[in-house]
Design a protein that fits this description.
By secondary structure, the protein is of the alpha/beta class. It contains 16 helices and 13 strands. The strands form three sheets. Strands 1-2-3-4-5-7-10-11 form an eight-stranded parallel barrel, surrounded by four helices. Helix 7 packs parallel to helix 9 and helix 8 packs antiparallel against helix 9. The longest helix is centred in the middle third of the chain and has 25 residues. The structure holds beta-D-fucopyranose (FCB). Beta-D-fucopyranose binds next to loops.
Length: 442
């Protein structure tokens, strides 16, 4: 497998999952800080208070990236470090952290991809309704504009939002994520305002006239397949496909929500103001695809949504309970390409949690993760060969970290993190990935 020249080989992280010190140097609390300190929300009562202590160990972490041979790194900015209440007065100490990080990456020859929103909304904005409030789109665009002014000359790749579908569904509809709401009306509004905030941020980016920078959005995608040929199974699979894969992309690329989903939500459907869709449709430079698994779906009258996912007996599943299905990466890349045209794509996340345990000598051997990465890279390569304009691959994650509602119980890293001592150890998957990347340079 020889990937194209200039292909980005990266790993990804997110601020709240790795940084720790969430209130340091004048930062404002985020909804994840508040949520994780609410009893009963996170497995084992874990919080992001320390996480990987990356806020203080970022230089060491860049050294690890160098050892891995990465030429790209995707991370996110904690909005509340830069604007403690989400808007208004800038906290320069927080901003400086990201400036130092970006400069350190550039010195190391590592291309930064900066995600502006990876779920850690400033808590004060949640007190005003969060994304369910239409003004949140504007607050986000103002914050984005500040970041473009401050770092636009140094960061070549910008992502507005990470997985808006997950924010809407897990944050506002089902409640497993911050802010922990269960309100379909609020969820539909939040989804629409996320799109609007994205569009306004893209407009602010264009207004800045940056020469060497590009902007896109990161979405979670995956095949939603029927368990059988029965019309009911096909119907629920199509509904889930439209909901997960099209709900955010159709507005961005076509200016409309998918009909089937809108009909399904009925009275709760989002109400777009006349000018919203043109803003949401602002041209983007690339699309980020996060791919982990597929869902196989069957009709189930006893379920409120009328469907259930069918466990795939005999297939390997990760610690998250997600089926390992590498072909799905090819399938979804092909689908995006056929559906939305020649937009450059990045795999902005792909990875697996397995129960890694260090040997008494302190080594971490994770052959399942090696197989996982290899198999997915094969499918990425196949997609490129079949004409998909794929420009890079970011493994999730650089290191074990705070896996949201699962706390520290799920390890996705190329680096093993001992959360007691903060010692990092390269897993065998990290060594494998480093060798693979080195092989690409030849
Ligand atoms: C994605 C998130 C990322 C990480 C992985 C496992 O949905 O974007 O932060 O938690 O899942």
């Amino acid at each position: 497998m020889q990937f194209p020249q200039g292909f980005l080989w990266g790993a990804a992280t997110a601020a709240y999952q790795i940084e720790g010190s969430p209130l340091a140097d004048g930062a404002g609390a985020s909804i994840w800080h508040r949520f994780s300190h609410t009893p009963g929300t996170i497995l084992n009562g874990d919080t992001g208070d320390v996480a990987c202590d990356h806020y203080r160990r970022w230089q060491e972490d860049i050294e690890w990236m160098k050892r891995l041979g990465l030429n790209a790194y995707r991370f996110s900015v904690a909005w509340g470090r830069v604007l403690p209440t989400g808007r208004g007065v800038v906290n320069h100490k927080g901003l400086d952290f990201y400036k130092r990080l970006v400069d350190g990456l550039l010195r190391a020859g590592i291309t930064p991809m900066l995600t502006l929103y990876h779920w850690d909304l400033p808590a004060e904005l949640q007190d005003c309704g969060g994304w369910a409030n239409r003004d949140c789109a504007k607050w986000f665009a103002d914050y984005a504009g500040l970041m473009f002014r401050e770092l636009g000359d140094r960061v070549p790749l910008w992502a507005t939002l990470n997985e808006p579908w997950v924010v809407m569904a897990l944050g506002y509809l089902w409640g497993q994520h911050a802010p922990g709401m269960r309100d379909i009306g609020a969820a539909a509004k939040a989804g629409h305002h996320l799109l609007l905030g994205h569009g306004k941020a893209v407009q602010a980016f264009r207004a800045q006239g940056l020469r060497n920078a590009q902007i896109g959005i990161v979405t979670n995608l995956g095949p939603q397949q029927p368990a059988s040929n029965s019309p009911q199974d096909q119907m629920v699979a199509a509904l889930w496909h439209n909901f997960i894969n099209r709900y955010f992309l159709d507005p961005i690329f076509r200016g409309e929500y998918p009909d089937t989903v809108i009909n399904f939500i009925g009275e709760f459907a989002p109400k777009a103001a006349p000018d919203d869709m043109p803003i949401i449709q602002s041209r983007i430079d690339f699309l980020g695809v996060n791919y982990y698994t597929r869902n196989v779906l069957a009709y189930d009258a006893s379920d409120p949504i009328g469907s259930r996912t069918v466990f795939q007996e005999g297939k390997l599943h990760t610690e998250m309970g997600w089926e390992v299905y590498p072909e799905g990466l090819y399938e979804i890349l092909k689908w995006v390409h056929e559906e939305y045209g020649e937009i450059p794509l990045y795999i902005t996340e792909n990875g697996a949690a397995f129960p890694d345990t260090p040997t008494p000598q302190g080594e971490v051997d994770d052959p399942l993760r090696v197989d996982y990465i290899r198999a997915h890279l094969e499918q990425a390569y196949r997609a490129i060969r079949d004409g998909v304009p794929l420009k890079g691959y970011f493994y999730w994650s650089l290191m074990d970290n705070f896996e949201w509602a699962f706390g520290y119980s799920k390890r996705f890293g190329l680096l093993y993190v001992d959360f007691e001592t903060q010692k990092r150890t390269m897993k065998s998957s990290g060594r494998w990935y480093a060798e693979f990347i080195a092989g690409q340079r030849r």
